[in-house]
Amino acid sequence: MLGLWSAYASQYLLILALATTLVFALPIFCIPLIWARLMGWKIPTHTDLAVYFGRCLGAFILILEAMMLRAALTGEAIDMVFEMLAAVAVMMVIVHVYGALRRIQPLSETLEIGFYSAMLVLTLLFWPAT
């Protein structure tokens, strides 16, 4: 399975970086509570901590997005970026399965198990050939 579509590794990174930047990174970084409401979270009245955590998470996602974009456009550090993407996908599946089992997240978060599982499979399929 590893690298079956490796010839398209850069294109995959470019599309993934653009899509996840627009849907996750920028909204979580810039408007975390609006994004959370759109995703089905019920926001309490004291939101400063949630905004702080949302912006911190958004900042880290933006760093990953920039690394994907650089790797997609230049090929630089493409292996490391794919390793990070696989690790992110695995960890996010774990986080979302935990939340689903505990029933402490909205449906949109539980559905992300499928998104991150698919991202893991696609990342493995597009893994660059060495």
What does this structure look like?
- This protein is mainly alpha-helical and 130 residues long.
- It has one domain (6-125).
- The protein is built from five helices and no strands.
- Helix 1 (9-30) runs antiparallel to helix 3 and helix 3 (48-74) runs antiparallel to helix 4.
- The longest helix has 27 residues, at 48-74.
- The chain crosses the membrane at residues 12-37, 49-69, 81-101, 113-129.
- Keywords: Membrane, Transmembrane, Transmembrane helix.
Cα Rg: 16 Å
Question: If you average the pLDDT, what whole number results?
Answer: 94
Biggest sheet record = none
**Could you give the order of the helices and strands?**
HHHHH
User: Which segments are poorly predicted (pLDDT under 50) over 5 or more consecutive residues?
Assistant: none
Strand content range: under 5%
- With helices defined by DSSP (H or I, 4 residues minimum), what is the helix count? 5
